[in-house]
Amino acid sequence: MPNNKLEKIVSLCKRRGFIFPGSEIYGGIGGFYDFGPLGAELKFNIKQAWWRDVVQMRDDVVGLNAAIIMNPKAWEASGHVSGFADMLVECSKCHIRYKADDMPDKCPECGNKLDNAKARSFNIMFKTFVGPAEDTASVAYLRPETAGGIFVNFKNVIDTMRVKVPFGIAQIGKTFRNEINPKDFIFRTREFEQMELEYFVEPDDSGRAFDEWVGLREKWYEQLGLKNIRKHEQSKEERAHYSKATIDIEYEFPFGWKEIEGIANRGDFDLKSHSEYSGQDLSYTDKESGEKYLPHVIEPSAGVDRIMLAFLCDAYTEEEDRVVLKLHPRLAPYKAAVFPLLKNKPELVSKAHEVYSLLAKNYSLGPIAWDDRGNIGKRYYSQDEIGTMHCITIDYQTLEDGTVTVRDRDTMKQERVLAKELTNILKEKVG
């Protein structure tokens, strides 16, 4: 991939309303981004696709929406308070700080050599206080992962839902990490979203379940058209201390192969640790055999923002005089755009609004755009650039026979169809 591809994507995202720098009018704030109208739609579609396939299409997975701030003892139990840290290196001359893993030979800011700089541990959890007093007793943390809320609610789900091992609890939510060196656009930020599943299994079944979920998660990306992905099996040295096995799904970004999702066999570490720290029995009792045990956990953990960036990089295409975002139909912010051929002809505009209303009120289709800016050619290319799947033009023939022109984003081919059949046609095309 060309080195400037990421720059082009960053520019497109700002110019077309996908992603804005956080607090831009005040000069921004490092590691934070705001998602504009189209970015919000794309993120929603990614999360909806994940939730649909991981939760709603299965009878063995339920959802959860846990609080961002939890009792700090939960993070002591998980090991985050004592061990959730990166190694930090500080330039002795200009005091710019770097993550040791990404440390350059020389400081880019001042040119000072960093090869002799000493690394120190830096806990990347965001600390806050609950209540009016800012003292040790009121310390709390913004969650560094969504998994913690799942484990502390394991017993609540068992007691309230008709679930039995094997089963999973899934959650999508905000996560916060005080990264030393945020970089690569939205790949590494300080506020992001995760999609995590904790799938609880019998101890002897963890190996089979792990392999199954690795296959399912790889297939999910392939079904949504993501190319340039590979699996990376972490070595014993790379894995977390509790992990029996971890496989990362990586994407080839313009800045190299990077992880977008990790699938881990976490054993019984989490439930055992929370049982010890909380004093609550988090074991599971099989109602048929009466056997009591701590389930093992398979965890597919995906970053929404990283996945969004991967889809944007994969979809960004330059074709002669146009730029096209070839997003999968399930992910495209707009499924279709409706145009009047001429915006100064009331009869065409009125008919176009009629067609737009027909499509827009159909929830199953997703968002529909209205566009009457500039000439028809510019509208086509404008919609191509944001990934709109189909452009529908209302012209004078529409007034005569009720047909409209439907243009395909990828092939640019046009066909005439009856306006009254558009809903069914688009449903079939979008899938």
Describe the protein.
The model has no long low-confidence stretch (mean pLDDT 94). The protein folds into two domains: 5-78 and 145-314, BirA Bifunctional Protein, domain 2, CATH 3.30.930; 334-430, Rossmann fold (3-Layer(aba) Sandwich), CATH 3.40.50. Helix 3 (72-78) crosses helix 8 (269-278). It has a seven-stranded mixed beta sheet with strand order 3-9-10-16-13-12-11. The two termini are 30 Å apart. It has helices spanning 5-15, 37-56, 72-78, 80-83, 147-152, 154-160, 206-223, 269-278, 304-315, 346-360, 376-385, 396-401, 422-430; strands spanning 19-21, 33-35, 61-64, 85-90, 97-99, 119-123, 127-129, 139-141, 167-176, 191-201, 229-233, 245-253, 256-267, 284-285, 292-293, 296-303, 316-319, 322-325, 336-340, 368-370, 390-394, 403-408, 414-418. The radius of gyration is 25 Å and the shape is globular. It is built from 13 helices and 23 strands. It has 431 residues and is of the alpha+beta class.
User: Helix proportion of residues, in percent?
Assistant: 25-40%
- What oligomeric arrangement do these chains adopt? single chain
- Judged by helices, strands and strand pairing, the structural class is alpha+beta
Order of strands side by side in the largest beta sheet?
Answer: 3-9-10-16-13-12-11
Put simply, the count of helices is: 13
Reading off the top of the CATH hierarchy, the class of the largest domain is best stated as Alpha Beta
Mean pLDDT: 94
> Could you say how many structural domains there are in total?
2
CATH T-level fold name of the largest domain = BirA Bifunctional Protein, domain 2
What CATH architecture of the largest domain do you see? Answer: 2-Layer Sandwich
- Overall strand count: 23
In whole angstroms, how far apart are the ends? 30 Å
**Sheet having the most strands:** 7 strands, mixed
Shape: globular
